[in-house]
Amino acid sequence: MLPESIIWKNGELLLLDQRELPFEVRYAACRSAEDVAVAIKNMTVRGAPAIGAAAAYGLAMAAVSEDFERSAQTLLESRPTAVNLSWAVDRMRRLYHENTGLPGKELFRLLEAEAVKIHKEDIEINRKIGFFGQQLLPGAGTVITHCNAGALATAGYGTALGVFRAASEAGKKIKIYADETRPRLQGARLTAFELFADGFDVTVITDSMAAFLMSRRKIDAVVTGADRIAANGDTANKIGTYSLAVSAHFHSVPFYIAAPLSTFDIKCASGADIPIEHRDGSEVREICGARVLPDEIDVWNPSFDVTPAELITGIITERGVIRAPFAGRIKELLTEGAVANEK
Ligand code: MRU
């Protein structure tokens, strides 16, 4: 059975150490917001919704024993691209400031309950994304996904992988190609592990094989997650997503993003406004600890890229599937709570 990515137990946060998967299942214990920020930065926990939930628990711990605002700031700075992190931090911050008059223990209980709510809500949201997303897939088909937008990247079930789970629950037979996802190999180490554990027909390819695969086999859809979606639909996700979308467009393969509404950021008018995390060059210089490049050769290591809205066929949310032109529908979904399933 797939191990849980986040466990809250007796006031302590246990994070499945995703750097060790698939060969070791080990949990790292976090006892402060500071510990959580370190775990987010070093990618013990990763995936947009998972880091949001972990940060929420971090702030529950900070409510009694740490400088709350400083902890919130440290968490916000731990990774810049996934907006779910600031979404969760802002939600916890609001509650904290509305209730600072409460005795310490009560304040902690209140923030703890909110963090549990953020965590549990995420599973429900993913099931709804799965419900809408699976309707886009045929009864028997083949898909490609990138990075890991599964149970490991969320509180459970997953966004993109939730779509495949829901399809399977609906009796559909879906074959999945998982891009290995250089440099950190989340596709090979996490997605393949997760899907295999759940009995899916999963095959790993290197990122550079996707276009050729599309030219040789019928691919029914590409489905990936997202870290931040701008007001016009431009979407930041793991580096390599953009190339996959370009290849899908060239081969007329529908390209879908699966993401909760907490991943939208209408303060970013377009993808140009989304902050892109650049990580240490050692991630490119080494593959699983083995050096493949000498230090004197430069590397460029953006952790995310931006797929322009025009390459996206649809965005699958917990309120339904939205299609181009995205801007108006995104605004409605976020500001008016409109229910839309434009399948
Ligand atoms: O650097 P990571 O592993 O945190 O990147 C994760 C992704 O890009 C996921 O696709 C995204 O966060 C969505 S997870 C439901």
Summarize the structure.
The chain folds into 2 domains: 6-125, translation initiation factor eif-2b, domain 1 (Four Helix Bundle (Hemerythrin (Met), subunit A)); 127-342, Rossmann fold (3-Layer(aba) Sandwich), CATH 3.40.50.10470.
What key phrases describe this protein's structure?
single chain; 343 residues; alpha/beta; Four Helix Bundle (Hemerythrin (Met), subunit A); Rossmann fold; 2 domains; seven-stranded mixed sheet; four-stranded mixed sheet; 16 strands; 40% helix; 18% strand; disordered C terminus; binds 5-S-methyl-1-O-phosphono-5-thio-D-ribulose
CATH superfamily of the largest domain: Translation initiation factor eif-2b, domain 2
**Uncertain ranges:** 338-343
Count of spatially separate domains: 2
* Strand order in space, largest sheet: 6-5-4-7-10-15-16
CATH class category name of the largest domain? Alpha Beta
How many helical elements? 11
State the share of residues found in helices, binned by percent.
25-40%
SSE order: EEEHHHHHEHEHEHEEEHEEHEEEEEH
Largest sheet: 7 strands, mixed
What would CATH call the architecture of the largest domain?
3-Layer(aba) Sandwich
CATH topology of the largest domain: Rossmann fold
- Overall 3D geometry? globular
Give Rg in angstroms: 19 Å
**Beta-strand content bin:** 15-25%
Number of strands: 16
The pLDDT mean sits at 96
Distance between the termini: 33 Å
